[in-house]
C-alpha cells in the first residue's frame, strides 16, 4: 500500500529521490480521502519550492486542498498529463499521478525528517 | 451543536460504505462509490437518493387551498385536478424567499408540501402562523420516508416493482401505487434533471423499498454530492446558496413561480414592485474555463468585484467548472465575459442561460 522506497510527510505527500531529483506526489490514502480528483494546479518549471510550503492545489468535486512540498529546491519538471487527466492521481498515485520533480541542493539531507513507509502507516492509523 | 438526526436508512448507508457528513442537522451520505460515478449513473441509467431528511407537511380542510394560496407565490389553481403538483416559493412581506417547495394536491381538500430539511422549523412556524385556523396542518416529516429514483431507466425499474398494468403518473403528478406490495405515493418529480419519481412512504417501509430498488444491478445509490452536481448542471436553485430571505424570486430567476394575477399573497406587493422596476441583480449561470468555482468566490468584471459565486462545482457531464452567481442586472446577458477569482488566479467565465446540460431524459417526450 505504501511503497517502501518512498518517504512521506505529514501532509500526505510522497517523495522518490533519484540522484538529486526528487519526484513528488500524494499518497494513496490522500487520493482516497479526496475522492475523484478533477483539477490539479501546479507551478512552473524553474520555480523554487521550500520544504513545508505550498506548491499548488488539488481539487476534487467537493473540496480543494493545498499541496505542500516535502523538500526544497528548483522545479525541473511538472506532470503536464494531469492538466488533461487529473484522475491519474486517483488511478496511479505513485506512478502516472506524480506532480513535480525538484532538484534538491543536498540529496544527503533532503529526506531528513520524512517518514518511512512503516512510520507513515502508523501515522495514518493514528489520524484515522 | 445538537446531535445530528438520522434517517431510517442510516444503517443501510453504513452497510454500503457511504461517507457520512453533517447536513442541515442530519447525518447524511455524501457519496458511496464517488460523486462523478454516481452522477453519471443518474445521467445514463438510474440512481437512488435518500431524501428522508426533507420536510413533509399535510394540510386539510375546506380552506386549505385558499390559505395556501395566500402563502405561496405560484397559483394552486394550476393543480385543481387531484394528483397534480407545482413548484413554488414562499416569501415574506418584503419578497424575501423563506423556502422553495413542491405542493402536491393529494386529495379532496388535501395538500402535501415537501420542503427543505434545513428550513423545517422556520417553514412550519411560517405555515402555522399564516394559515387560517380552520385548516388542519400536520407535520408528517418524522414518520414519512422519501426516496428519489432518477435517471433514464428509473420508470422501468419502478414499473418492474409495481407489476403488471402499472401506469406511471404524468409529469408533475402524484399517485398511489404499490411497490412489491408496499403502499406508496409516487411523485413524478425530482431535482436532477432526469425523469423519475420520488417515492413517499411510511418511514417504517423506507428500508424495504430501498433494498428493493438496490436489488436491481443497474441502480446506483447516490449521495448528496451527486445530488448537488446534478441539480447545478440543470441550473436548479438551492436554498441557502442560490436563495434565502435576502433575495426575491425575480432576482433569483424564479419569476416563473410567481403568479401575480392570482390575487393576494404574502410578498405580492414587494415582488410586483421589483418586477416593475427590474431587479438590480440577477442570478446567472457561469461556465468557467479553468479550476473549480465554489460558493463565495469573487466574481469579477475587469478588475472590479461585481458579485460572489452562489453555487459552484465541477460538472461531471461537461468536465468543466460551472457556477451560479448574483451579478448586476446589466452584466446578466448571456455571452457576457466575467471572471471568477479562484484563489491566486482569475479564471475566465462566460454568462450562460441554464440549464448547463441539455438533452437529458427530462427533455424527451413524457410517457
What does this structure look like?
The complex is a heterodimer of chains A (128) and B (367). In chain A, a hairpin with a 3-residue loop joins strand 6 (54-60) and strand 7. Chain A has helices at 28-34, 81-84, 88-91, 107-110, 117-127, and strands at residues 7-8, 13-18, 21-26, 37-41, 48-49, 54-60, 64-68, 73-78, 100-104. Chain A is an alpha+beta fold and 128 residues long. Chain A contains five helices and nine strands. In chain A, the strands form two sheets. In chain A, strands 1-2-3-9-8-5 form a six-stranded antiparallel beta sheet. In chain A, strands 4-6-7 form a three-stranded antiparallel beta sheet. The model of chain A has no long low-confidence stretch (mean pLDDT 95). By secondary structure, chain B is an alpha+beta fold. In chain B, 19% of the residues lie in helices and 35% in strands. Chain B has eight helices and 19 strands. In chain B, the strands form four sheets. A six-stranded mixed beta sheet of chain B has the order 10-11-12-9-3-13, sandwiched between helices. In chain B, strands 14-17-16-15-18-19 form a six-stranded antiparallel barrel. In chain B, strand 11 (182-187) and strand 12 (196-202) form a beta hairpin. The longest helix of chain B has 11 residues, at 120-130. Chain B is globular and about 60 Å long. The model of chain B has no long low-confidence stretch (mean pLDDT 96). Chains A and B meet through strand 4 and strand 6 of A and helix 2 of B.
Largest interface (CB < 8 Å): A-B, 11 and 18 residues
Placed side by side, the strands forming the largest sheet of chain B appear as 10-11-12-9-3-13
Element string of chain A (H = helix, E = strand): EEEHEEEEEHHEHH
* Broad structural category of chain B: alpha+beta
Shape of chain B: globular
Q: Tell me the structural class of chain A.
A: alpha+beta
